[in-house]
Amino acid sequence: MTESFNPQANTVFCRKYQQELPKMPHPPFPNKKGQELQETVSDKAWKEWIEHQTMLINENHLSMMDPKAKQFLTEQRDKFLDNEDYERAQGWTPES
Questions:
Q1: Which letter, b or e, does each residue of 80-96 get, where b requires 16 or more Cβ atoms within 10 Å of its Cβ?
Q2: Residue 30: alpha-carbon gap to chain centroid
Q3: How far is residue 79's CA from residue 71's CA, in Å, rounded to a whole number?
Q4: SUPFAM superfamilies of this UniProt entry (predicted)?
């Protein structure tokens, strides 16, 4: 018996882009939140978040040992993924 290819199994309706896009290959965190993110955020949006998060950490000299820094990044991640107003790196200008 051969498995039939189901393109829907490899896609999610991305909350950032509001369309079906390839899903993350695995949850970003080993918990319920990670599972939720894998089911609602595309691989593309997650990679963009990781890039943005790195800029925020570097520019703001955040320590990942600091609970306040973790809370800040969690809030920014949710805003970023929900297309709300989120913190941008200094000197950032939107593409025209």
A1: bbeeeebbeeeeeeeee
A2: 15
A3: 12
A4: YggX-like
How many whole angstroms separate alpha carbon 11 and alpha carbon 44? 11
**72 vs 62: CA distance, rounded Å:** 10
Q: Can you tell me the distance from the alpha carbon of 72 to that of 35, in angstroms, rounded to the nearest whole number?
A: 21
pTM attached to this predicted model: 0.83
Output the six-digit token pair for 56.
């925020």
Question: Residue 28's pLDDT band (boundaries 50, 70, 90)?
Answer: very high
- Which domains, from first to last, does the chain contain? 7-81 (1.10.3880.10)
- pLDDT tens for each residue of 1-21: 444 555 567 999 999 999 999
Q: Which string of DSSP letters, residue by residue, matches 70-92?
A: HHHHHHHHHHHHTT------TT-
How far apart, in whole angstroms, are the C-alpha atoms of residue 9 and residue 14?
Answer: 14
DSSP state of 5: P
